[in-house]
Amino acid sequence: MEINQYLDSTYLKTPEQSGLTEEQTFEKVRELTDEAIAYNFKEVMIRPNYVKLIKDYLVSKNSDVLVGTVIGFHEGTYSIEDKLKEANQAVLDGVDELDYVINYEAFKAGELELVKKEFVEGTKLGLDFDKTVKWIIEIAALSDAQIANLTTNIWTWAQENFEEKDFSRIFVKSSTGFYVTEGGKPNGATFEGVKIMLDNAGKLPVKAAGGVKTPADAEKMIAMGIQRIGTSAAKALLGEGEAGVGY
């Protein structure tokens, strides 16, 4: 199985989170990019402030590796206007894919119209610029019923507002990898959570982010039907090196 083209190789820690300087953090991002080029990964998933530098770097290397970034990260509670502003800047900087954190707290509070509005407007912005859009629902913050309900709503809203040809570019994604759980519970993709997403996403593709640690995990996720895997240990999923504890 060719796992590499399923992999979105990810580095999203800020200098404050990693204890590194700004320069050292960028070097981490560039090393991630060099690795993605060498192993022909699908994408590098990085913070918005690095998009232009890394896109230019990939162009200079004549690489087909995509650049993705996160929007409204990681809490998802940014206003719709702020998310659209951030996404638009990423587009101007050359991004290929936009991974929005959906406002799952608003969803849990019953503010469905707000969540629908940000989904429709955020997705439209991406599709208008021919970008792939992914919606992170943060499954560790949701019950099984909420995972099913939110995924179903996203599928319904996609059908109501976009054409079938667009569905392959509207993903439902499991996790940010930064949600803090209690009692050692996983904060990324789980087989159980991803199955619920797959069962309710209709024709929308699903991305499993965080929690996929071994080649066997990756192969099982792919066999289940996921289209992408977000990982900070992409080489480990190819059987080279070991996965760390974080996303």
What does this structure look like?
Strands 1-2-3-4-5-6-7-8 form an eight-stranded parallel beta barrel, surrounded by seven helices. The chain is globular. Helices cover 44% and strands 15% of the residues. The model has no long low-confidence stretch (mean pLDDT 96). The chain has 247 residues and is α/β, with parallel strands linked by helices. It has a single domain, classed as Alpha-Beta Barrel (TIM Barrel), CATH 3.20.20.70. It has helices at 15-18, 22-39, 51-60, 80-92, 104-108, 112-128, 144-161, 191-200, 215-224, 234-237, and strands at residues 7-11, 43-46, 66-71, 97-101, 132-136, 170-173, 206-209, 228-231.
Quick synopsis:
The protein has ten helices and eight strands. It is of the alpha/beta class and 247 residues long. It has an eight-stranded parallel β-barrel, surrounded by seven helices.
Provide mean pLDDT, rounded. 96
Shape: globular
Strand order of the largest sheet: 1-2-3-4-5-6-7-8
Indicate the low-confidence ranges by residue numbers.
none
CATH-level-2 architecture: Alpha-Beta Barrel
Highest-level CATH class:
Alpha Beta
CATH topology, which one? TIM Barrel
What characterizes the major β-sheet? 8 strands, parallel, barrel
DSSP strand (E) fraction?
Answer: 5-15%
Estimated helix fraction: 40-55%
What order do the helices and strands follow? Answer: EHHEHEHEHHEHEHEHEH
Oligomer: single chain
Q: Return Rg in Å.
A: 17 Å
Number of helical regions:
10
